[in-house]
Amino acid sequence: MSAPLLGHLFPLIPLARALRDVGHDVLAASAGDALAARGNEIEVEDVAPGFDFGRIARRIMMRHPLVARAEIAGDGGLRGVSRIFGAVNDEMADGVVALADRWQPDLVICEPLAASGALAAARRGVPLVLHENSLFNGPELLAATRFAGTLGRYGVDALPSAATTLTIAPPSVVGAREGLPMRCEPFSGGGAAPDWLAERPARPRILVSRSTVNGAGENPMAAVVAAAPEVDAEVVLVRPDNKTASRELPENVRTVDWVPINDVLPTCAAVVHHGGAGSVFGALAAGLPQLVTPGAGDRKHNAQLVAARGAGLSVPAKRITAVDLNRLITDDALASAATEVQAEIAAMPGPDELVPTLEALDRS
Q1: Residue 214 clears pLDDT 60, i.e. is over it
Q2: Beta strand extents in the chain (DSSP E only)
Q3: From the CB of residue 270, how many other CB atoms can be counted at a distance below 10 Å?
Q4: CA-based max dimension of the chain
């Protein structure tokens, strides 16, 4: 079970596949944007047809302007998240509970912002596994969700404690976490990259991506394009915005439509991105220095953690310069730290190795 956003469901797919591969029946539940995960070998049930995440977020932020201001600046902590995803889960709860009653799962796995999944586990009396999918502390996120009214509607006093928490963030980046460590296996959907992008180029390649929900000032592409002529690298823009795509680009800048980014990262030397958790994990797992643009929601938090670990840079989108891009591909300290984190992630148990532990929870 995930919140209705594709970036929230994708990190759960590797574990879902591991469970399916040993013969278990696996069903993913979500709504909205996350339904785009269909077609990746895991069935995805729509528990809230017609769901509109933006409508809920706008309503909550209009009611709480000070929280909205902090959220946009990336300083909201859990205040905005708790309100927005409380309302999100309230709207999803009926569908999730109905699905659980019909499907009768033996185990519920949910990410921290999918409190309605925890509600379903409580109502069915089955173990709950909390699957982290960001750099925030999962149990704290789940506990902060403003969900009491929804719980009361179903006669549930409180969200259940997770039987276990699967922690995917490397401790050297986020600190020690309670729970079971599990290797993050970044997933960005199926599909194939063009031949030229699947091969390592003659000079360093810098991959530049943006979010589909960027706010003002968070898209790094314009600044990267302006700086590119002074950088001895091939710069690849993934899904460039219309304004950038329509202009004449420097000779060392190429564009590509959607590609499975994590599949092409091995051909790259560095990554520039908007700060989403999926992008951070992808670069860390690939051992690549990354430039993260701090922004709304968790993006400032993520950028600060990457910079503090020494595995990348935190630079506002509009302030990216050739100096920053050249440092990404020449700074040995950045490369060394990124490689260290890559090794740390690789040493964590994979999803398939944790299947027996989850099966034991199911039988308990």
Answers
A1: no
A2: 27-30, 43-46, 108-110, 128-131, 164-167, 180-181, 205-208, 234-238, 253-256, 270-273, 290-292, 312-314
A3: 28
A4: 63
**Reported confidence tier of residue 363, pLDDT bands at 50, 70, 90:** low
DSSP string, 118-163: HHHHHHHT--EEEE--SSS-HHHHHHHS--HHHHHHTT--SPPPPS
Which CATH number applies to 205-346?
A: 3.40.50.2000
According to CATH, the superfamily of the domain at 6-183+348-363 is Glycogen Phosphorylase B; (3.40.50.2000)
> How buried is residue 246: exposed, middle or buried, by Cβ count under 10 Å (0-12/13-18/19+)?
exposed
Asked whether residue 190 carries a pLDDT value surpassing 80, the answer given is no
In our burial notation (b when 16+ CB lie closer than 10 A, e otherwise), range 57-76 reads beebbeebeebbebbbebeb
Predicted model pTM: 0.93
pLDDT tens-place string over residues 146-185: 998 999 999 999 898 999 999 999 999 999 999 999 999 9
* pLDDT, position 67: 87
Q: Enumerate the CATH 3.40.50.2000 domain ranges in the chain, comma separated.
A: 6-183+348-363, 205-346
